[in-house]
Amino acid sequence: MSTIVQKFGGTSVGSTERMKLIANRIVEEKKKGHDIVVVVSAMGKTTDTLVQLAREISSNPSKREMDMLLSTGEQVSISLLTMALQEQGVEAISFTGRQAGIQTDSILGNAQIQSVDTSRIRNELDKGRIVVVAGFQGETSDGDISTLGRGGSDTTATVLAAKLKADRCDIYTDVNGVYTSDPRFVHKASKIASLSYEDMLSLATMGAGVLHPRAIKYAKEHQIKLFIKSSFEKGMGTLVSVEKQSHSEIYVIGVAFKENIARISISEFEDGDSLQAKLMLELASRHIQADIYKQYFNNVLTVLIKEKDLQDVLSILHKEKNNLTYRNLEYENGLAKVSVVGRNITSHPGIKEKVCKVLLKNKVKVKLVGESSISVTAVVEKSEVYIAAERLHAGFGLDFIVTEQVHV
Ligand code: ADP
Ligand code: ASP
Ligand code: MG
């Protein structure tokens, strides 16, 4: 019998009405004869509300208690959804991350899954039950509850799909597929029928929040087919899978952006390369994602991070000031990154130039421009990010495409 993992995000389980609706979908799939494992997120904006509650009590809550708190959101969803399934006359059982056998490392708040003991899930599937698992959480080797970082339910779903050797992993969300840019803000974005793990990973890494980058890496490693579909309407959605043909040419896939970015600029250091390497290691060991640019003309190291990581990174920098050998730093938040995402981008110098031209023409203030093989990224004020994304989408000819990628 084939196994299918279905993941439903926050909006999809945002109310009891919606839970009843998706219960129909799950039962429909079960009736086709598959074993079904369902992974769910917390209802609607529950996780944001829980974060806010913690902030009302402490500006720097302990990571252990934060994870204890945040994991409760998913627990509400699994029990309610399981009740909705039982109401439909099917057998179903809910599991927390720990009950599902998910073990993580001990980086609380941003933990990575280390192993999954699927025996309990398998047991229940063998009894003909639908298993509903809380996304975004696991247990450390000390027995504490850990969470996987925001958007982490996608990772729970793909990891379970791999461990259970599932035929596919269906990601149900509030859009009907992956688009050339975020369709909520870039109105001329168009749906991509299928794309490779690599291209999906590039889009997600640069900010396309429809899938968590870690989930895509995992799916790629284990060749799990991902279907991104709407929870509310029927249709094909987007397939993310292995590349059908290898592409060596340059092309632009889409425009992605990240909001709530902070910048730290470090100056007056002795050895910039060693500072950059040490800092990268420090941040990586805490799973903090950062872009670090060295500006040679003024000898400044610029670090771009999520605003939520600012306090952590500042305290690392202060604590390690002597080891990192720098004298000055300054920072600001309220920024955003907007990226033109594609392949072999650096081998086409015209792309960076065009990004600058388009933004300049539209009077968007550009604070910094960086490039990598998958993107040209401009740092802008948060208030200008949507207009920047729309203009770049148009500027790179993405407004009217029907094909999967734009060749430049
Ligand atoms: P879920 O709660 O289901 O995990 P998310 O909010 O994490 O949903 O992801 C879905 C959202 O991703 C969409 O509402 C959309 O605004 C956003 N998004 C960003 N970039 C893209 C893109 N390129 N294609 C589709 N959706 C995108
Ligand atoms: N509930 C968590 C979040 O809001 C995890 C998830 O939805 O994937 O980030
Ligand atoms: Mg998500």
TrEMBL record:
<comment type="function">
    <text>Catalyzes the phosphorylation of the beta-carboxyl group of aspartic acid with ATP to yield 4-phospho-L-aspartate, which is involved in the branched biosynthetic pathway leading to the biosynthesis of amino acids threonine, isoleucine and methionine.</text>
</comment>
<keyword id="KW-0418">Kinase</keyword>
<dbReference type="GO" id="GO:0004072">
    <property type="term" value="F:aspartate kinase activity"/>
</dbReference>
<keyword id="KW-0220">Diaminopimelate biosynthesis</keyword>
<keyword id="KW-0067">ATP-binding</keyword>
<dbReference type="InterPro" id="IPR001341">
    <property type="entry name" value="Asp_kinase"/>
</dbReference>
<comment type="pathway">
    <text>Amino-acid biosynthesis; L-threonine biosynthesis; L-threonine from L-aspartate: step 1/5.</text>
</comment>
<dbReference type="InterPro" id="IPR054352">
    <property type="entry name" value="ACT_Aspartokinase"/>
</dbReference>
<protein>
    <recommendedName>
        <fullName>Aspartokinase</fullName>
        <ecNumber>2.7.2.4</ecNumber>
    </recommendedName>
</protein>
<feature type="domain" description="Aspartate/glutamate/uridylate kinase">
    <location>
        <begin position="3"/>
        <end position="230"/>
    </location>
</feature>
<dbReference type="InterPro" id="IPR045865">
    <property type="entry name" value="ACT-like_dom_sf"/>
</dbReference>
<feature type="domain" description="Aspartokinase ACT">
    <location>
        <begin position="338"/>
        <end position="396"/>
    </location>
</feature>
<dbReference type="InterPro" id="IPR001048">
    <property type="entry name" value="Asp/Glu/Uridylate_kinase"/>
</dbReference>
<dbReference type="InterPro" id="IPR018042">
    <property type="entry name" value="Aspartate_kinase_CS"/>
</dbReference>
<keyword id="KW-0028">Amino-acid biosynthesis</keyword>
<dbReference type="InterPro" id="IPR036393">
    <property type="entry name" value="AceGlu_kinase-like_sf"/>
</dbReference>
<keyword id="KW-0808">Transferase</keyword>
<dbReference type="InterPro" id="IPR005260">
    <property type="entry name" value="Asp_kin_monofn"/>
</dbReference>
<dbReference type="Pfam" id="PF00696">
    <property type="entry name" value="AA_kinase"/>
</dbReference>
<keyword id="KW-0547">Nucleotide-binding</keyword>
<comment type="pathway">
    <text>Amino-acid biosynthesis; L-lysine biosynthesis via DAP pathway; (S)-tetrahydrodipicolinate from L-aspartate: step 1/4.</text>
</comment>
<comment type="similarity">
    <text>Belongs to the aspartokinase family.</text>
</comment>
<dbReference type="Pfam" id="PF22468">
    <property type="entry name" value="ACT_9"/>
</dbReference>
